[in-house]
Design a protein that fits this description.
Layout (H helix, E strand, L loop, with lengths): L1 H30 L9 H6 L22 H4 L8 H11 L7 H5 L21 E2 L5 E5 L5 H11 L14 H5 L16 E8 L7 E8 L11 E8 L10 H12 L7 E7 L3 E9 L3 H9 L9 H14 L6 E8 L10 H11 L5 E7 L6 H10 L4 E4 L2 H10 L1 H5 L1 E12 L4 E6 L20 E4 L3 E10 L8 H4 L6 H9 L1 H6 L12 E10 L7 E8 L9 H16 L10 H9 L6 H12 L2
Parallel strand pairs: 5-6, 5-8, 8-9, 9-10
Antiparallel strand pairs: 1-12, 2-11, 3-4, 4-14, 6-7, 11-13, 11-15, 12-14, 15-16
């Protein structure tokens, strides 16, 4: 019995020692500053206390370098000083890197918390069964810069997340030499038709619309509210520190005609600046540079406060806009896409537009950010590096901040005498019902000053076509009834040079109709453009070939069910055969090479 008691005591002593060791290990781990798995309610409340002195304490001016000194000299526990020192040393060799390498300088790890909107790719449509193609305009570019980030993080095309790639946003990321608007029309229209590079049975149609370029000095005054996510999920260097730099860059280009407010949100919302003159650059940058991350993410409450502040400083005839910067990870208050859509749809009626800037990796909620921008009459961009911030907020500042047309809708009516079937490339989650085109209560996309929209169709010509009832096509331009009426007017058509048989419709492939509203109006205007064989080019322009290469790469990256003969090799060959006339197009070639 005595031996058993001694053995039992020894065993208990050993167990106690092991438990003590485990406890010491956990305490040591906590002392190293390792992030906790969850954020407590107390942390969420205290996370915003740092803001109270934002407008009074001194902070260094932003110096427009790759990494601002204000951020580099204020490392957090998650980003030690050595890491910032390494980055500062890397600046010296920046000029030796390619554009792509110098752009993307974050060492991040993609996690499985990212969310993308679900959409279903549409195949070919028969012109006789579905002669109308109707969809909303889109000038968002987030999908391309996010794709760039994913590829740079090591993803192969096959490994890219489902629904992460939207081809229309890849196309609209780049500039093209499109025609300028004429007269009082808001758009210049450019159309080209050529052989489809990845489908020998189809032709490729490119439609380009461009609004007038406007210098920011010539724009109306802006009432801007920066709505900034400072929750705990924003602590990484590619989130809040990059956000601070980005908005400091924007602040340098504002003027005394502008008004700037800053609202932050974490567990709660805080007004940091209230209607400061845009020329108070140092004051705006001080407030930005004092921000720190911590707490939960009560995004809906921040949205309410930001819109209230925008309404308080509303400028009649001006540009009134909330700019939301976040990773989209809203976890307090209204959090679902449906709830956020309802909230923003109500707020946009105030005449205040919403732009959304996405930041970070690992837990970005692309689906929520896209919804907010779409329903808030604004645009959505993803900032993966300081060069992208410069592109969106400096180079394209007017396009980002100033809306020229809202609720822009496209409707293409195909001529069954020429086109048997067609397929719209991209725009899957922008599709509208045909009756929505003439319904001014239906929301659609916005286009800023100097923005361009690129649309591509694969079309198959002169295939046998079936019948369709008179009732279904009697109101369409290319209906048999309409063509019969034109033939009866044969002599008049001949005098107008519309063809020997008096029927010009066989020379038209389709008619493009565009509806749009002026920013302060609720009634739409209609423009129509008939497109025919005159747009066909045996040797298409470099713009056409570049857009085709982007779309072909997009088919592969989006895991399209209709890639036909698309390949990275073909894309690379095309890009090497044309003049890549700016650094962003050159960057795209570098990105393609990484996937070869």
């Amino acid at each position: 019995m005595k031996k058993r008691l001694v053995a039992l005591l020894l065993t208990m002593t050993l167990i106690a020692g092991v438990l003590t060791g485990c406890g010491s290990s956990k305490t040591q781990e906590a002392d190293t500053g390792a992030p906790a798995a969850e954020t407590t309610t107390e942390e969420a409340v205290t996370g915003a206390d740092y803001i109270t002195e934002a407008a009074t304490e001194e902070a260094p001016m932003y110096d427009n370098t790759m990494r601002s000194e204000s951020v580099a000299e204020a490392p957090t526990s998650e980003a030690p000083e050595a890491e910032y020192a390494d980055r500062e040393e890397a600046k010296g060799t920046e000029n030796e890197k390619s554009y792509l390498d110098s752009c993307y300088d974050f060492d991040t790890e993609v996690q499985n918390g990212e969310e993308y909107s679900e959409w279903e790719e549409k195949g070919y449509s028969s012109v006789m069964k579905e002669p109308l193609s109707t969809f909303s305009a889109d000038v968002d570019t987030a999908s391309y810069s996010n794709l760039r980030r994913l590829i740079r993080d090591g993803y192969s095309l096959e490994e890219l997340p489902e629904n992460a790639v939207r081809i229309e946003e890849m196309l609209n990321y780049f500039d093209y030499d499109y025609a300028e608007p004429k007269g009082n029309e808001p758009f210049g229209v450019t159309t080209q038709i050529g052989k489809c590079p990845w489908n020998e049975e189809a032709e490729l149609v490119m439609i380009g619309l461009k609004t007038q370029d406007v210098e920011y000095e010539q724009t109306p005054p802006s009432n801007l509210v920066f709505l900034l996510d400072v929750s705990g999920s924003m602590h990484n260097e590619d989130k809040l520190p990059l956000l601070q730099e980005s908005f400091c860059m924007l602040a340098e280009n504002l003027t005394e005609k502008d008004r700037v407010s800053i609202v932050t949100y974490a567990g709660d919302d805080t007004i940091v600046l209230d209607g400061v003159s845009g020329d108070k650059t140092k004051k705006i940058q001080k407030a930005l540079n004092k921000l720190e991350a911590g707490g939960g993410t009560h995004g809906s409450k921040g949205i309410e406060t930001a819109y209230a502040l925008a309404e308080e400083h509303f400028i009649e005839g001006g540009n009134n806009r909330v700019i939301l910067a976040t990773d989209g990870d809203l976890n307090i208050g209204l959090t679902s896409e449906e709830e956020l859509e309802e909230l923003i749809s109500e707020k946009k009626e105030s005449g205040i537009f919403l732009s959304v800037l996405g930041f970070g990796t690992g837990n970005i909620k692309d689906s929520k950010m896209e919804t907010l921008a779409d329903k808030g009459n604004g645009n959505y961009a993803y900032i993966d590096c300081i060069r992208e911030a410069d592109k969106v907020l400096v180079e394209e500042m007017t396009a980002t901040l100033l809306t020229i047309c809202k609720d822009v809708k496209f409707q293409v009516e195909f001529n069954p005498s020429v086109v048997s079937s067609y397929r719209l490339i991209g725009y899957e989650n922008r599709a509208l019902n045909k009756e929505d085109f003439n319904d001014d209560t239906k929301d659609a996309g916005e286009i800023g000053a100097g923005h361009s929209v690129t649309v591509l169709y694969e079309v198959v010509l002169k295939e046998p076509i079936g019948g369709l009832s008179e009732k279904e096509i009697e109101d369409l331009k290319y209906s048999d009834n309409y063509k019969k009426e034109l033939k009866e007017q044969g002599q008049q058509e001949k005098q107008e040079g519309l063809g020997e048989d008096g029927n010009a419709l066989t020379e038209e492939w389709f008619t493009l109709s565009v509806r749009y509203k002026k920013p302060a109006e609720d009634e739409s205007n209609l423009l129509q453009y008939p497109i025919g064989y005159e747009c066909y080019e045996e040797e298409p322009s470099d713009d056409f070939l570049f857009a085709a290469a982007v779309a072909e790469f997009g088919l592969l990256a989006s895991h399209s069910e209709y890639p036909e003969d698309a390949s990275v090799k073909n894309v690379k060959k095309t890009l090497k055969s044309i003049d890549l006339d700016d650094e962003y197009k050159e960057e795209f070639l570098e990105l393609v090479k990484e996937c070869d």
